Amino acid sequence: MTTTASAPHDHTTRVAVCAYDRLTPDLGVAALVGDTQVAIFRLADGTVHAVQNLCPFSGAYVLSRGITGSKGDVPTIASPIYKQVFSLLTGECLVTMDKEPKPGLSTTLEVFAVDVEDGVVHITPPPPA
């Protein structure tokens, strides 16, 4: 499922992205929030997390197709291309698989604030660059 949500002009306002019950536990979806591709994950415990969809190691917008898991108590997403593992809480790359990110890209993913209200998932877009 890919969802498009138009971001309001005020970047502190959250954006309704999709219905919570449309998200399949442990699988990701991609959403376009303004001009930013976001990967959204509903985990088995019911929590919802959102990070940038761009994998900094491959340069491809594929993280929504990654494999969810955990490292200790930290929920994670593994990139489907080179298998780097990222924290869904902080965006930190926990396992680099001995690779470097593409030039100009950080090893840390951007993490987006997510909340669910009345069965609808909302994401707070990043401030303008």
Keywords summarizing the entry:
7-stranded mixed sheet, 129 residues, 4-stranded antiparallel sheet, Rieske Iron-sulfur Protein, mainly beta, disordered N terminus, globular
Please explain how this structure is put together.
There is one protein chain. This protein has 129 residues and is mainly β. It has one domain: Rieske [2Fe-2S] iron-sulphur domain (Rieske Iron-sulfur Protein, 3-layer Sandwich). Helix content is 0%, strand content 43%. It contains no helices and 11 strands. Strands 1-3-4-5-10-11-2 form a 7-stranded mixed beta sheet, with no helix packed on it. A 4-stranded antiparallel beta sheet has the order 6-7-8-9, with no helix packed on it. It is globular, with a radius of gyration of 14 Å. The termini are far apart. Mean pLDDT is 90; it is low at 1-11.
Short summary:
Helices cover 0% and strands 43% of the residues. The chain is built from no helices and eleven strands.
Q: How many strand segments?
A: 11
Q: Which value, in Å, is the CA radius of gyration?
A: 14 Å
SSE topology string: EEEEEEEEEEE
- Tell me the CATH architecture: 3-layer Sandwich
Q: What class would the helix/strand composition place it in?
A: mainly beta
Total of DSSP H or I helical runs spanning 4+ residues:
0
In this structure, how is the largest beta sheet organized?
Answer: 7 strands, mixed
Reading off the top of the CATH hierarchy, the class is best stated as: Mainly Beta
Mean residue pLDDT: 90
* Domain count: 1
Name of the CATH superfamily: Rieske [2Fe-2S] iron-sulphur domain
